[in-house]
């Protein structure tokens, strides 16, 4: 069985969608590891419910990013993970993790990249008066939200309520992410 990992810092609705899709066969892989940098995050409970092994850590307990990324890489290697899916992992991937898994790490971002990179993308887009929003899935490189784009889906919204944009966007994310992961695995 092929193995994938999800990285999340918080709520984990994308984690949940990916876990469901692995369980019912829409994604042809086992979700072998959750990596979470926030002990107590809701995603950790979701992993327990799905029986997904976790590596939950506090970055403050390590002397550097390189230090905790070495631990992450050894967990990924041990689990035999071939694809790493960042889903609300609010941390820039460093050279240790990229060095080991370049080309095998993807991320989902709530904007039509290259517009609105970084945190609070939806809030900034609403503030800007955007009328066409979207979701992007891309390979991860050294740049913040910067790697090659794999998939995008756009939607129109003329209002000014960020919560509504989040709601519509997340619905799209759950489908787009599971479909894209499945396609990447099938193409390899
Ligand atoms: C998702 O909407 C994802 O696009 C966003 O975090 C959310 C996590 O939701 N990621 C970023 O903003 C990355 N820059 P979830 O925890 O419910 O999956």
Description of the molecule:
The protein is an alpha/beta fold and 188 residues long. Helices cover 40% and strands 22% of the residues. It has helices at residues 13-23, 42-50, 65-79, 95-101, 121-128, 162-187; strands at residues 3-8, 30-36, 54-56, 83-86, 105-109, 132-139, 149-156. It has a seven-stranded mixed beta sheet, sandwiched between helices. Helix 1 (13-23) packs parallel to helix 2 (42-50) and helix 1 (13-23) runs parallel beside helix 6 (162-187). The chain is globular and about 45 Å long. The two termini are 14 Å apart. The mean pLDDT is 98. Glycinamide ribonucleotide (GAR) is lined by residues 8, 10-14, 87-88, 108-110, 121, 170, 173.
What layout of secondary structure does this protein have?
Layout: E1 3-8, H1 13-23, E2 30-36, H2 42-50, E3 54-56, H3 65-79, E4 83-86, H4 95-101, E5 105-109, H5 121-128, E6 132-139, E7 149-156, H6 162-187
Parallel strand pairs: 1-2, 1-4, 2-3, 4-5
Antiparallel strand pairs: 5-6, 6-7
Helix pairs in contact: 1-2, 1-6, 3-4
Bound molecules: glycinamide ribonucleotide.
Glycinamide ribonucleotide binds next to helix 1, strand 5 and helix 6.
């Amino acid at each position: 069985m092929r193995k994938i990992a999800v990285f999340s810092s918080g709520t984990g609705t994308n984690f949940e969608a990916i876990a469901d899709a692995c369980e019912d066969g829409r994604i042809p892989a086992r979700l072998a590891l959750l990596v979470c940098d926030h002990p107590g995050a809701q995603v950790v409970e979701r992993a327990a419910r799905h029986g997904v092994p976790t590596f939950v850590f506090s970055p403050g307990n390590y002397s550097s990013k390189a230090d905790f990324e070495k631990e992450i890489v050894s967990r990924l290697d041990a689990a035999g993970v071939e694809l790493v899916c960042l889903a609300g992992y609010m941390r820039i991937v460093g050279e240790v993790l990229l060095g080991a898994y370049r080309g095998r790490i993807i991320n989902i971002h709530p904007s039509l990249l290259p517009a609105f990179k970084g945190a609070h993308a939806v809030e900034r887009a609403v503030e800007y008066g955007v009328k066409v929003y979207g979701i992007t899935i891309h390979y991860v490189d050294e740049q913040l939200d910067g790697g090659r784009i794999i998939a995008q889906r756009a939607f129109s919204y003329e209002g000014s309520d960020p919560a509504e944009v989040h709601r519509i966007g997340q619905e799209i994310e759950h489908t787009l992410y599971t479909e894209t992961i499945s396609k990447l695995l099938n193409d390899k």
